[in-house]
Amino acid sequence: MDLFTAIDTRASALKLCDPAPSHEHLQRILQAGGRAPDHGKLAPWRFTILRGEARLVLGELMAQSLKDRNPAADADELRRERNKAMRAPCIIAVAAHITRPHKVPEIEQVLAAGAAAQNMLLAAHALGYGAMWKTGPAAYNPAIKTAFGFAEEDHLVALIYLGSIEIAGEPRASAIEERLKWME
Ligand SMILES: Cc1cc2nc3c(=O)[nH]c(=O)nc-3n(C[C@H](O)[C@H](O)[C@H](O)COP(=O)(O)O)c2cc1C
Questions:
Q1: Fewest CB within a 10 Å sphere: which of 3, 30, 73, 87?
Q2: Long-range contacts for 132-140 (Cβ within 8 Å, ≥24 apart)?
Q3: Is the shortest distance between the CB of 103 and ligand 1 below 6 Å?
Q4: Nearest Cα residue to atom 4 of ligand 1
Q5: d(C-alpha 125, C-alpha 21), whole Å
Q6: Nearest 5°: phi and psi at 150?
Q7: What is the rounded distance in angstroms from the CA atom of residue 164 to the CA atom of residue 120?
Q8: pLDDT computed for residue 60 by the predictor
Q9: Taking Cα atoms as reference points, which of 33, 23, 61 lies closest to residue 143?
């Protein structure tokens, strides 16, 4: 798939299923992440891959995080939150590990990790897989960051849910109207 076809046809999948990307494809996707632009060559991105039973731990933590935010959450809401971790056979958690102090500002290090996430979304799409980039309040929960092996001060910028496509999403039109200025 050429680059512009990949960019123009990528959309968040609405529903994912097995099989997860093969080991070889996952390596290709992760390598695409590590090719992101990177001011200062800090490689600030950190990737943790969850598959199989490891997803249950994330589900438990997401339910606990919901309970902490909303002690009135009922069993059904907690079950739904827990099941979110099972919506794909593979999850890549992407964090930005910030080098401090450093002449490269923190925001630029975060952006590099975001660019890594986008590279992985496009690579997954080009290989025929579906993906969803989610964060949600759980991504800001220190217990969840440390469960992935990230530091509390790291920014968890993406949970990339990855798998085969059960229900595809519709690509959106490029949203540049009225957000564009030409200065000549
Ligand atoms: C940093 C970041 C966090 C996001 N978190 C969520 C999220 O928690 N839940 C969600 O539904 N969409 C989230 N999105 C948006 C979706 O990933 C998706 O891009 C958006 O719904 C547009 O759909 P598309 O990917 O099909 O163009 C997030 C996007 C970014 C860049």
A1: 3
A2: 132/12, 132/13, 132/16, 132/87, 132/88, 132/160, 132/161, 133/12, 133/158, 133/159, 133/160, 134/84, 134/158, 134/159, 134/161, 135/159, 136/62, 137/65, 137/66, 137/69, 138/61, 138/62, 138/65, 138/66
A3: no
A4: 134
A5: 11
A6: -90, 160
A7: 15
A8: 96
A9: 61
Best mutation site among 12, 45, 118, 176 for ligand 1 pocket (most ligand atoms within 8 Å of CB): 12
DSSP state for residue 141 in the 8-state scheme: -
Which atom from ligand 1 is nearest to the alpha carbon of 171?
26
Residue pair 45/33 in contact (Cβ under 8 Å)? The answer is: yes
CATH architecture, domain defined by 15-167: 3-Layer(aba) Sandwich (3.40)
Spell 55-83 as b/e; 16+ CB within 10 A means b: beebbebbbbbbeeeeeeeeeeebeebbe
- What pLDDT sits at residue 142? 96
3-state secondary structure of 6: helix
